[in-house]
Amino acid sequence: MLKAKLSVSEKIGMAVIGIVLATMVFLCIFPFYHMLVVAISNGTAVIQGKVTIWPIGFSLESFKQLFRDPYVGYAYKNTLLYVFLGTIINLFLTTMCAYPLSRHNLIGKKYFMGIIVFTMLFSGGMIPTYIMVAITLNLKNTFWAVLLLNGMSTFNMIVMRTFFITTIPESLVEAAKIDGANDIKIFTRVVLPLAKPILATMFLFYAVAQWNRFFDYMLFLNDKKTYPLQLLIRAMVIEGNLGETAQKQSAANDLFVSETGIKYAVILITVLPIIMLYPFIQKYLVKGQMVGSLKG
Amino acid sequence: MVQSSSIDRKPHQNSVWKHIKRDKYLLLMLILPMAYYALFKYGPMYGLLMGFENYKIKKGIIGSDFVGFKHFAKFLSDDLFWRAFKNTIVLNVLNLIVCFPAPILLALMINEIQYIQMKKFVQSVSYMPYFISTVVVCSIAISFFSNRGIINNLISGLGFERINFFLEARWFRPIYIFTDLWQHVGWDSIIYLAALAGCDMEVYEAAHIDGAGRFQQIWYITLPYLIPTISIMLILAMGKLMDVSFEKILLLQTPSTYEVSDVIATMVYRRGIQNVEFSYSTAIGTFQSLVSTIFIISANAISSKLSETSLF
Fold first, then answer.
1. CB A79 within 8 Å of CB A89
2. Which domain holds residue A195?
3. pTM of the model as a whole
4. B59 within domain boundaries
5. Are A146 and A217 in contact (CB under 8 A)?
6. Model confidence band, residue A1 (pLDDT cutoffs 50, 70, 90)
7. Which of A233, A242, A278, B228 is 20 to 30 Å from B205 by CA-CA measure?
8. Which CATH number do you get for residue A173?
9. Do B43 and A124 touch (CB under 8 A)?
10. Among the listed residues B5, B34, B35, the one whose alpha carbon sits nearest the alpha carbon of residue B18
């Protein structure tokens, strides 16, 4: 935009824009700040509704109480394990699918693409999927049900395939072929090194999705010991079931901790990794979103 | 080559075999992804047969009794189904009215920021909620809007009565739409900002010389420039009119708000998973899948007719 002298109505307009954007920034940041303030404040003040903007008192007791609950430790470990394994499966299947389908003369490419795109148009839905995974494949109460069911995303696969088509020239593949390389060698020596940027972006998208996944775990897991963080949050915050933590809290009267404080503490430890890493990874995520929307 | 075609009686099949041999490693790579699609995408489609049976786990899909369209007839005369159908459409249309224009406005406003650093900061902050999980978003909403939460503290501080946000049906839609807006407005503005980045600066300069003010420039240059992107996004949004944020509704609804909050997906979940009425809920799910397929295909057809952009 040009820098120019503004008329009165334009000044008012700019002020309105400023206020709207400031409100939006506030609404995006404040909830997390408020939860942090409540979690470190004195429990009595929290229950009296006095804590809004500034903390009253200071203690990390909410967090300590939280980690005294063994299920919080399990949930954290489970989440890390599920995200790690899940993301590996995602990257493996996505690459294995996207690369062959990016080669312009692959035999039967039309049919493979047809089979895949059809699943974006029509799906069996919740109950048949549940029956397939839990009954037919007998994967009830194991995290493999969730990891395999979410083995790859068709949308991401198509984004990656577009990347291969647009950035790896067919002539490069042909040249490697003339040098006597087979398709496996071409893939590992020529294509994969060139695919680092898209692999990094895919890794981030998949890892965030794995970290945030909830419903499928709720559907397939029964044992509380195998819960990931998202399920634990639901049990603690939404169903209000603080379990052993709440019982211990009444015993430790001198270090009074509010229920709200513990709830906010568990939310914070779940979003913390994402918020901490967010400034560093956001440009890759945005780039990935652009690739996805421009694929045409 | 010329000789082989005269010798060979089936030249086509022969060349197919040759191509398979040539692409053997590529086809080998495709085995696991294809197995994934077969098991987890096409397997459930086969499971749709349950909707036409009295499915019993012990008997399996092949062994269960076939009952034809019995379950379909049953849900089509079920008031609860029509309530869920109506809620699905209403929630989506309301959401579209609020959450579709918002990212466009946001992009236009962000585009007006003069200082690059400030612009980057606002953008980064606005994308962040997109990466927060549904469970956390709902947990924050439920805690903040709860009886002793910060919102009600504020309301009672101003001298009003505390509100039971999650027990009163009339609050469900505003909360659903507001949380959706909060989570997606920034992220959805990316595509418009990307389009704006390609806007030619010289046009603005010319307009400025001709005496056009800033808001005239937005109205006559920027907005028309965005129209193609906007129409495509609108058509694609129409294609998703049967999809709702199922997880969010499941987490935010309480039985006392079912009247407005129960959608087809949550109904299927309750009847199918919690009440174990597999066949009945599969029939409802089939209906939903079919209707959304029709929506997506028509949206895509319109979109590819109007421009070169299409979903697939």
1. no
2. 61-296
3. 0.89
4. no
5. yes
6. very low
7. B228
8. 1.10.3720.10
9. yes
10. B5
